[in-house]
Amino acid sequence: MDTDKLPIKFFAPREIDELRIEGNGNSEKPKWVLEGDALVKRAEILQASLSDIETIMIERKQSASPVPFSFIAKIQEDATAKSKRKDITNFFQVKDNSSVIGVADVNELIVCLDSVDELRQISGKLRAYEKNDYAISCIEGFAEFEPSVMATDEVCNYKVKLVDYQDFEQNLAMRRMFEHTLERNKIEYKKTTYSEQFYVYNMKMVNTDMLEQLKKEEIFNALFSVEPMPKYTVSLDFVDDDQEVPVKIPENGKNYLTIGILDNGIASIPNLKPWMEMDRWSPYPNDSINPTHGTFVAGVALYGDECEGKNWVGHKGIKLFDAAIFPDTTKEGLDEDELIANIKEAVALYHEKVKVWNLSVSITRPVVDTKFSDFAIALDSIQDKYNVLICKSAGNCRNFENNYPKGRIHEGADSVRSLVVGSVAHDKGQYDYAEYNDPSPFSRVGPGPEYIIKPEVSHYGGNAGVTPSGETVTTGVKSFSKDGKMATGVGTSFSTPRVTALAAGIQQELSEEFDPLLIKALITHSASYPKEMTVPVTERAKQVGFGIPKNVPDIIYNSPYEATLILRDSLAKGDKIDIMDFPMPQCLLKDGYYTGQIIATLVYDPVLDPSQGIEYCQSNIDVKFGSYDTKEERDTSKRHILNPVGRKGSQNLLLGTVYSKNKMKEKSSEFALKERLLIQYADKYYPVKKYAVDLSELTEKKKIEYLSPDKKWFLFLQGVYRDHIERMAQIESFALTQEFCLILTIRDPNQKEHVYDEVTQKLDEYNFWHSNIRVATDVNIPL
């Protein structure tokens, strides 16, 4: 085998590595639990607050309304932790199903009850305060549930969401009641499924009088929110360019992957037409389509490297599918529900042929901390249902023109399943604000809701600035206008198709079934920060995610001095993976201690529930990698011990606390500048986690403790689930599990030791199943 073309490897845990999760067996109460007078006082305050709720409930119930009664339980800021949420939910348990049905806002739970008797049962629990001290310590008060209404004086379309009562029949009845109410009031509407059992209504042309009448209706208390329906537009400013790029033609008999361009259409210009094998799909007639933006996006995807004279992506050609989901918005606007319906229909029709989709369409609304956007929820649902990957732009911001800080990523860019892309400057003109390889001035920043890292990666999308006279100027990336001429433009819209093309290029080179998690993980794992980047280390993840990914061949192959292992598996609730014979190569022992660089990327599909607001991600996976002293036999006859073998003297080396700050400051190597990552994810529900550590940077004390030659090495993964989804799984009898992809690279930074060979030998020695990633035999990848 060519030693410069060593394929990365899949490997799998052995049966002995798959263990059961054990309880901690600690019976002492935590310090945060109130006791004595403090507990009595809190219970009395809550009793008074609940009495007010009872008065409101009695008034409501006098009308014998079919609309369930809901109220808000306000909880302490840190009471979202799994250990606390279970006690809170148990406190409101007065029937077979949980009475806690959703999250209204940060630290606000929606509680739904059928009768005053149920409310009085809860009141009785407050009197039994010592028995319910955990829950009472977490609850701050109660309030009436009221739908969130954002009204405008103008006649417009309104977006309406109903409360999810976590009951199929109840939700169905409320939808019917709402639809009858709209029909009786002669309000035109359209219902769109954003995700499974998550419906959104578009009330058409509603004025203030109609909105006030709706507030008087019985169904109003079953509404979750009412707001103006977001509208979408596409705008694009081009600058003509004199450069010409030769037309390339697909090779006969060669298999090309097709990417879907979800945009405003692709023009059949000479450079693109040979690569468009399927006819355009669109819900709009041709005379309503103005293929400006989509043509430029498609040009970047197919000709991005040729236009810039770079090998940024390195694919060998990709086919294009034109999904014109956007009409000419200079003639007509597009409501959010219609946009989602268009995306869903295009993907539903073509998902078997088109697995990678580009969505460079952005909403002009930034994400908020308190919830995931409906657009993101819809994109997640589409990807789950059809097993596709959507590459989504982070969104553009013009704040730099007025000397304001960048805005947060746009709605839709908080999609958990999508690969979200920011922009980096590829060049610098006289008045441009960003230095070469710094974040573009217009590229919106993260994080997403619940602090998840968005964008995950970035690529080249142009630069911009303002002249002394106040004129905005740009240094654009190159592509094609709709008339086939070369043009330049800037935006995350044009960094995104590079990553879309990269995803397609990787899949095209592999003889593996399409796997969105694997593709997303490979791209994220390869990403690094340009050494020229001037953004502080602490800000980089917010600005550009994990950096700029490598090109196709660099992602698929290892050098002899590194080994990349892929663990692609699922992890069921109650199980964990603890590989106690991790194949750490002994060739990395130098001067009596282990050395080397470790890069670990974990991408997983958390269980999602739109009804849970900020807690939309209902599950998490933790990963640990490090050394330990010995294996030890354990007494499984004891109550909390389920596994016969354990580790003694373990240390997770993905923690920043074991590394020397002074050593890290002194290092100016390429790894220190580009790759080192010591983000502390703690118990946050991050769907993408990445670590990059250099063992030589451990403190001297920790080096002696954890890197001596007698150490063994382990890799550990464990899933965690929120209380809500655990209860739903029990009630509805479904198994909780999470698909994940972990990629781990071990590297000799001095490029002397043959790490690849030794890791392969140790996999055999320890009886691991392993296999090279399958590369298409008809593809020649020059390195």
TrEMBL record:
The entry's keywords? Hydrolase, Protease, Serine protease
Q: What PROSITE patterns does the record tag this protein with? A: SUBTILASE_SER
> What is the recorded name of this protein?
S8 family peptidase
Q: Which organism is it from?
A: Maccoyibacter intestinihominis
Tell me the protein family, please: Belongs to the peptidase S8 family.
**Residue ranges constituting the Peptidase S8/S53 domain according to the UniProt record:** 257-531
Q: Which SUPFAM superfamilies match?
A: Subtilisin-like
Lineage of source species: Bacteria, Bacillati, Bacillota, Clostridia, Lachnospirales
Q: InterPro entries, per this entry? A: Peptidase_S8/S53_dom, Peptidase_S8/S53_dom_sf, Peptidase_S8_Ser-AS, Peptidase_S8_subtilisin-like, Y4bN_pept_dom
